[in-house]
Amino acid sequence: MTEKIDLLICPRWIIPIEPAGITLENHALAINDGRILAVLPIDEARSRFHPATTVSLAQHVLIPGLVNLHAHAAMNLMRGIADDLPLMRWLQEAIWPAEGRHVCAASVRDGTRLAAAEMLRGGITTCNDMYFHPDAAADAFAEAGMRAVLGIVLMEFPTPWASDADDYLRKGLAARDQWREHPNISFSMAPHAPYTVSDASFRRVRALADELDLPIHLHVHETTTEIRDSIAEHGIRPLERLARLGVLGENLIGVHAVHLDEADIELLAHHGCSVAHCPSSNMKLGSGIAPVTRLLDAGIRVGLGSDGAASNNRLDLFQEMRHAALLAKVSALDAAALPAHTVLRMATLGGAQALGLGEQIGSISAGKCADLCAIDLGCVLTQPCFDPASHLVYVAGREHVTHVWVNGESRVDKGVPLLQISDKELLRIASVWQTRFAN
Question: What's the rounded mean pLDDT across residues 67-83?
Answer without folding.
Answer: 95
